[in-house]
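FIELD: query
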Amino acid sequence: MGRGVRLRRQLHRVGERLAIDGDHAIVADDAGGQLGDWLVGSDLDHFDAAGDGVSRPDRGPEVPVGTEEDRPGAGEILCNHGVEDGRRHTTLHHDLTERRRCCHLGVVVDRVAVAAEGGEELNVISRDGFRPFRGVADGRLTLWPDLGHGLTVSRSVPVTPVTYGAAMNATVTSSALVGVEPRPVRVEAHVGGGSKGFVVVGLPDAAVREAKERVRAAFASSAIVFPRQRVVVNLSPADLPKVGSAYDLPIALGVLAASNPKYQPITDVVALGELGLDGSVKAARGGLGAALVAKELGKRCLLPPSSAAETGGRGDLGVAAVRSLAHAVAVALGEQPAAPVEEPRSTPLDIPDLAEVRGQPLARRALEVAAAGGHHILLLGPPGAGKTMLARALPGLLPPLEGDEAHEVALAWAAAGLHRPDPTLPPFRSPHHSASLAALIGGGSGVPVPGEVVLAHRGVLFLDELGEFPPQLLDALRAPVEDGSVVVARRGATVEFPCRAQVVAATNPCPCGFEGDRKEECVCGPSTIARYRRRFSGPLLDRLDVQIRVPRLRMSELTGSRGEDSATVGTRIEVARRRQRASRGKLNRDLGRGDLDGLKWSADADRALLGAAERKQLTGRGWDRIRKIARTIADLEDVDVVDTRHVEEAVMLRDAQL
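FIELD: result
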């Protein structure tokens, strides 16, 4: 390698420390002073080492580096535009903003000479950060130090204690779901300093760390220049684990705003979305949470069209659907309108109609009463009696979800990363008996995710073959069934999930399933049946309001006429629920003992209830359960006073013994 080439390369390295955007550094005294030496990063052959207006080393024409008119004053910057017609073209600027507009670089200037007071020390803001540069004494700067190889380039010029700088930070708001609570996440982008690189910090998972490559590709596909400096993105709060690809869009907007001041207005949004390599914005979970955060902060919310559909078309949330990164920038700047919000997608579900259930008048009535009051129900009977069909028909009897209830369910499903098939239909979850405790209740590493009981919030949790569930799983359901919420503690967070679900349990009376059957003889011995029934804890069964037997159907019932359909029964249920909320503010399932004591009961109903309590040896919880069921039966009849017939039917609906 020739000596001249080595010199040029070393000059280029030094020049990166002092040059503004790879062009040059200018230092002038208060009076305007003399023109300092400068290094042209794109044309190293023309470097005025001696300060006499002659370019060295001897390659190419000798070009004057500056004229009297080019001489900068204190705080001014000389911008190099290269050599044309044997002359170097320059522009004098009074501040960095003018200089950026001149060069159309759209990047933050981060390499500016800073002289200390009295000229004792000079710091250079470079890609490597603040660093002292030797050679300052008596207010004069030696521009270049010893370059090695026996070569020195030195010249002293006056310096002035002045600091130049520009904004290099930008913050865009996003959101994270902690349980079902949406929390704001500050996506802080810093551009400048150090060597080139792209770092994401703030407890990101693998998907968030991979955002670096997606953002770079999206910039290129959108004809946006990615910053040539070091980029650091911090997701704050830094102690909250960040999961998923939803932070791609806010990271991209933050980097763009930090690298170009004209894009600062795009930071006044809440953004969420995954970026495709072509710059498109793809769906990401948590759209409703981001919209709620935006409403709380008084900002506009940028979401992919499909994620915007999670908001259910609520105009008060200020959601704007964006199709791509370029479109998101234009919408945030007010240059283009938002895309239409997609309609919520619904997948038809196979829900049996109640009319398909032949016979079983007691079970049909029990299902109607349970649906009207939100009561938990146990179906006990032999195989093939219709227990599963009855349970699966229950969502079709419940009123559709609306308003806050629908949003609660949407947030719970978004926290689990799931898409609801039909946003208006109450959820129906049927976990297998081999499910783990975390799958049933909730858990996972880091921030807990919802389990099946939470996903059934405002809907139905069906426990088929209850006797096959491990006893520890059933016991874990006791508190959530009673309280309507469950607290899950993990390393990343302690989260309270809502789980006000209606539990429907179905089981056989014994291992063979035919204990008490009218045709099949049970082959289980007393010890086998006792061991089987020990799986069901008394406290759990006591929390199931309605407990009935579902017997084997007779052939005449199978070929008989159809009963009432789900629509007819559902209408009565909806009227009864409206009555409960209008008079008591909640469903009868959620009434406390004080609420029950304040209800109107006839004297005969009180005596009937006392007699049933003595006869069946009811617990305090069982006493309250029968009162709740009796009140629901009265609501179905649209009467204010609970009568004897209501109590007798309530006792009958809790008559099954396991």
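FIELD: remark
The chain has a mean pLDDT of 76.
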